[in-house]
Each structure stands twice: as structure tokens, then as C-alpha cells.
């Protein structure tokens, strides 16, 4: 309990947030995590579920026909996307770029409302979010194919289009709200994000450069040791053979002398 209170106080001091703002951020984070978890469980359930597709006119009841008509608008198949962000340096950097683009799109939502004086209940705000969700699903699918498929050498059309829209929104924000964007950040915020970026860069260098080098070095050392042992054993055998040959030669000389 004391540890929890200490963490809450540290968070409030770090971000200078009031109690109400802190609990809003906490509830928002918990809701996001819960939504991600429920979405993953739903996708896993639907991907493992057995589907029995039949013609609409082969279904006897009207209720079954209506249900079959509604299923017509569901996806044809469920595909699992394994991003494997730490699988390679390209995938790791690609995942980071995707995260930056998504955060930029989310940030544009608030800046556009503030800079262009658009009230939150306006239909443009909701329409923009729906547009980004529908178009973003296709764009992320094309982006994943670019990262995962070695034969894919370029982005898809939707990925290019959505990237252009997000960049255009960012340019609009920078043009009409330059005074807002260029406001200096508080010192503790700069220190916090500087530490995060430093840790991220160090971890990337460690995981993709230092760890493979250590692995290769350990493999080389493991392969060199048996060779050294074989050479040493060969040398010992040569010494033993020379000693045996000398003994045989001495015994032969003694036999000749006795004879």
C-alpha cells in the first residue's frame, strides 16, 4: 500500500497532475489495456471458430437466412499478424515508426481542434476518427506486408495515402499553431523523455549489435576448443608412438647383440 502511494505521488510530481487528472489518465490507460486484451481474445476466438458456409437458399428457416445474410459482411478469413518487433533491426525500426505515426495522428486530433477552433462535438471530429480507423486498418495491413514479405518492395496505396494525410495535418498544425507547437517543455518532461530515448537507443544497440556479436564469439570459442583438443591429442599420440618405436628399436638391438 505504501509502495502504491509512493508511485502515485511520484507520478503526480513528475507530471504535475492533479488528483482528478491523474485518475483520468489512469482510467484511460486501464481502458486501453482492457480493450487491447479483449480484442486479442476476440480475434483468437474467431480465428479458431469453425464456420459452416452454406448457400442461402439451402437454409430452411428465415432466421437462418437472415443470419447468413448478416455473415456476408464479415471477413472472408481471419489472418494472424505476428509482428515480431524484435526479430530484426528492420522490423524493430518499422514498429517504432508505426508507433510514432499513430501517436502523431492522435496528437493531430487535439491540435487541429485547438488551432482551427473546431468544437469537440462537431461532426468533422467524429468523421475524421471514423475515417482514420477504417483507412488505418487497410494501411496497417499493407505496412505489415511490407515488413513481413521479402517480395514486397514498396508500400501500398492506402499506406501512402494515410501517411500523406497525417503529414498534411501536421503541416497545418505547424503553420497555424507554430506558437503553440514551439512552446518549451517543462524541464522534468524533457528529462523524462530524454531518459526514455536514451534507454531505447542503448537497448537497440545492445540487442541488435552486442548480443549477436557475443553469440558469434561464443560459437567461435566453442568450435575452437575441440580443434585445440584434437591437436593436443594428436601430439600426444605422436610422442607415444615415438617412445614405443624407440623401445622397439632398443629391444631389437639387444636381441641382435645376444644373437
TrEMBL record:
GO molecular function: L-serine-phosphatidylethanolamine phosphatidyltransferase activity
InterPro entries according to UniProt: PSS
UniProt keyword annotations, A-Z: Endoplasmic reticulum, Lipid biosynthesis, Lipid metabolism, Membrane, Phospholipid biosynthesis, Phospholipid metabolism, Transferase, Transmembrane, Transmembrane helix
Reactions catalysed according to its record: 1-(1Z-octadecenyl)-2-(4Z,7Z,10Z,13Z,16Z,19Z-docosahexaenoyl)-sn-glycero-3-phosphoethanolamine + L-serine = 1-(1Z-octadecenyl)-2-(4Z,7Z,10Z,13Z,16Z,19Z-docosahexaenoyl)-sn-glycero-3-phospho-L-serine + ethanolamine; 1-(1Z-octadecenyl)-2-(5Z,8Z,11Z,14Z- eicosatetraenoyl)-sn-glycero-3-phosphoethanolamine + L-serine = 1-(1Z-octadecenyl)-2-(5Z,8Z,11Z,14Z-eicosatetraenoyl)-sn-glycero-3-phospho-L-serine + ethanolamine; 1-hexadecanoyl-2-(9Z-octadecenoyl)-sn-glycero-3-phosphoethanolamine + L-serine = 1-hexadecanoyl-2-(9Z-octadecenoyl)-sn-glycero-3-phospho-L-serine + ethanolamine; 1-octadecanoyl-2-(9Z-octadecenoyl)-sn-glycero-3-phosphoethanolamine + L-serine = 1-octadecanoyl-2-(9Z-octadecenoyl)-sn-glycero-3-phospho-L-serine + ethanolamine
EC code(s) of this entry: 2.7.8.29
Record has Transferase as a keyword: yes
Record's bilayer topology term: Multi-pass membrane protein
Cellular compartments annotated: Endoplasmic reticulum membrane
Coiled coil: none
GO BP term, example: phosphatidylserine biosynthetic process
Principal cellular location given in the protein's record: endoplasmic reticulum
Source species, domain of life: Eukaryota
Protein's pathway: Lipid metabolism; Phospholipid metabolism; phosphatidylserine biosynthesis
Entry-linked Pfam families: PSS (PF03034)
GO cellular component, one term: endoplasmic reticulum membrane
Transmembrane spans: 21-40, 92-111, 123-140, 160-178, 190-209
Entry keyword Lipid metabolism: yes
Function: Catalyzes a base-exchange reaction in which the polar head group of phosphatidylethanolamine (PE) is replaced by L-serine.
Family: Belongs to the phosphatidyl serine synthase family.
Cited PANTHER family: PHOSPHATIDYLINOSITOL SYNTHASE, PHOSPHATIDYLSERINE SYNTHASE 2
UniProt protein name: Phosphatidylserine synthase
Organism (species): Schistosoma japonicum
Amino acid at each position: 500500500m505504501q509502495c502504491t502511494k509512493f508511485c502515485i505521488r511520484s507520478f503526480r510530481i513528475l507530471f504535475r497532475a492533479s488528483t482528478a487528472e491523474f485518475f483520468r489518465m489512469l482510467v484511460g490507460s486501464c481502458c486501453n489495456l482492457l480493450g487491447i486484451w479483449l480484442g486479442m481474445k476476440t480475434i483468437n476466438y474467431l480465428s479458431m471458430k469453425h464456420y459452416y458456409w452454406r448457400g442461402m437458399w439451402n437454409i430452411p428457416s428465415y432466421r437462418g437466412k437472415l443470419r447468413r445474410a448478416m455473415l456476408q459482411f464479415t471477413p472472408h478469413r481471419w489472418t494472424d499478424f505476428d509482428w515480431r518487433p524484435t526479430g530484426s533491426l528492420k522490423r524493430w525500426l518499422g514498429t517504432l515508426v508505426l508507433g510514432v505515426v499513430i501517436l502523431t495522428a492522435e496528437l493531430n486530433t487535439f491540435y487541429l481542434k485547438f488551432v482551427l477552433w473546431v468544437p469537440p462535438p462537431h461532426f468533422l471530429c467524429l468523421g475524421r476518427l471514423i475515417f482514420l480507423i477504417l483507412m488505418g486498418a487497410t494501411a496497417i495491413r499493407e505496412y505489415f506486408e511490407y515488413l513481413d514479405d521479402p517480395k514486397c518492395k514498396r508500400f501500398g496505396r492506402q499506406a501512402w495515402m494515410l501517411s500523406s494525410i497525417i503529414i498534411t495535418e501536421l503541416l497545418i498544425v505547424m503553420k497555424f499553431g507554430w506558437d503553440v507547437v514551439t512552446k518549451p517543455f517543462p524541464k522534468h518532461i524533457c528529462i523524462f523523455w530524454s531518459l526514455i530515448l536514451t534507454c531505447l537507443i542503448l537497448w537497440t544497440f545492445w540487442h541488435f549489435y552486442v548480443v549477436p556479436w557475443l553469440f558469434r564469439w561464443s560459437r567461435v570459442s566453442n568450435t575452437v576448443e575441440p580443434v585445440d583438443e584434437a591437436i593436443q591429442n594428436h601430439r600426444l599420440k605422436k610422442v607415444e608412438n615415438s617412445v614405443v618405436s624407440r623401445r622397439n628399436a632398443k629391444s631389437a638391438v639387444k636381441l641382435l647383440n645376444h644373437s
